[in-house]
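Page 47, continued from p. 46.
Same chain as before, 261 aa.
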Amino acid sequence: MLSSNPFAELSGSIAPIVIQTYVVIMILLVVGGTLFDVVHKKSATYFFNNWRAAKKRGTKPVSAGATASLAIQTAVVEGLTSGEFCNPRRRIAHLLTMYGFVAYVITTVIMVFWYPTTATPTPAIVPLLWYIGALLVCLGGDWFWFFIRVDVVAEGHSRFRLIRADLFILSLLASTTLGLIWAYVQSTGSGWSSVFLGLYLLATTILFGSIPWSKFAHMFYKPAAAFQKRIAQADGSRSNLPAPADQPEIFGTAREQPRHY
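Result:
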């Protein structure tokens, strides 16, 4: 099963063009939803206004070379390794989810557009990475949801308490989990495959169609905000914050280690 392309097997009952059209619509929903989110919340306006204000407060010029270096550091530290998370458990959970989601999305596109039918054999590594990516999302996402969430750990709320901010992680977990179940059921030839396919498509549509109301677009904002923070530290504006104190920061107490953020 792990080396089988589930979308190619689906082509026996649904034309590949239908599956490809659905994926294109999901991509357009991501682009359109993100742009709507930027315009509606005026995120770009705030970002550039804050950038200009920070430049005026800066006490040191930042050269083009230094700016490029800071951009690379942002991409490596905040982008590739999620260095903004102080809590190692949350950082690992985030990395599992992030890299799993990237592998899951990329391999889905490859299988749907490059190997849409069983007539074109899919390299075994591609569906294997699809399964591994989905499993990593489930592992990191469930770990975050049940054991790391701030409102559960720090504020004592129920693990089953739902708010709108949870829409992204829950729809993501539903999409990957149902995708794995559908692929397995389809491989067994069970009549339930159509049911799980419908649930999988529903969860995926909610994931990509709810961007204006979920935290999906944050994955595009965070690198820009992290880069601006590095620039503010380099030019001396420090985001309009006071200079660091001489005494080092101490998190937690002698009786309890920090685990909230």
